[in-house]
Amino acid sequence: MSVVLTTLRAALFTSILSLLIGITNVSGTPLFVAFLAALFALRMLEVYVAGAPTQIVGGDLKSDDQSRITTWIIGTCFLTNMVTPILQYRYTMPSPGVAWWNWIGLLVMMAGSALRIWSMRVAGESFKEQVTVATKQRLATTGPYAWVRHPAYLGLIISYLGVTMIFSSSLGLAALLIIVVPTIILRIFKEEKILSTHFGEDWRRYTAQAGSMLFPGL
């Protein structure tokens, strides 16, 4: 993907979100300017530092077709956990305003996105959008994978928590707890079943080493 095309897509993405927030809100609120700038930068980093997730186009693969529903749900969580918090903030009367914890939310969102990008970078070609493994796929065990077995999912959860905090969104928090976290846990169980079968003893040694499935210490 060319630099120009990627930049245009990132700009279009942030422009649409700025319209959802409201031009008046954006122009009068430094937090929202920082939020949009961070999203633009993180999108560019995801493409050029982490690399785009590998698409499944065939070949000698082991996969779980039942993972498609979790892939679809996680994809639609952009609406429940990004768009919904923005709209809730915009149409809440009176306006919630901006407090210190909203700025903390921006840092939380950036930290979660950075963790996800780091995880994608370390996993390399092993990072997939679907629950699948290739015959010659390697097992990522370094970097964030040394702490938890699924740091990219943890990064996604942290990012959405940050968005919830930025917009003081009760709906975003509810969606995170009711939809996002349970779906990710279900997906992880499916994924680990396949990984255990594929990697065998290497997977068992890794799980003993990493310990935590999603949250450090849990």
The radius of gyration computed from the alpha-carbon positions, rounded to a whole number of angstroms, is 18 Å
Q: What is the share of helical residues?
A: 55-70%
What is the total tally of β strands?
A: 2
Measure the end-to-end span. 39 Å
The CATH topology label is Four Helix Bundle (Hemerythrin (Met), subunit A)
How are the strands ordered across the major sheet?
Answer: 1-2
Q: What's the CATH architecture?
A: Up-down Bundle
Question: What order do the helices and strands come in, and which of them pair?
Answer:
Layout (H helix, E strand, L loop, with lengths): L2 H19 L1 H5 L2 H21 L10 E3 L3 H25 L8 H24 L8 E3 L16 H16 L3 H30 L1 H10 L8
Antiparallel strand pairs: 1-2
Tell me about this structure.
With 218 residues, this protein is mostly helical. The protein has a single domain, classed as Up-down Bundle (Four Helix Bundle (Hemerythrin (Met), subunit A)). The protein is 69% helix and 3% strand. It is built from 8 helices and 2 strands, in the order αααβααβααα. Strands 1-2 form a two-stranded antiparallel sheet. Helix 1 (3-21) packs antiparallel against helix 3 (30-50), helix 4 runs antiparallel to helix 7 and helix 6 (151-166) runs antiparallel to helix 7 (170-199). The radius of gyration is 18 Å and the shape is globular. The model is unreliable at 55-61 (pLDDT under 50).
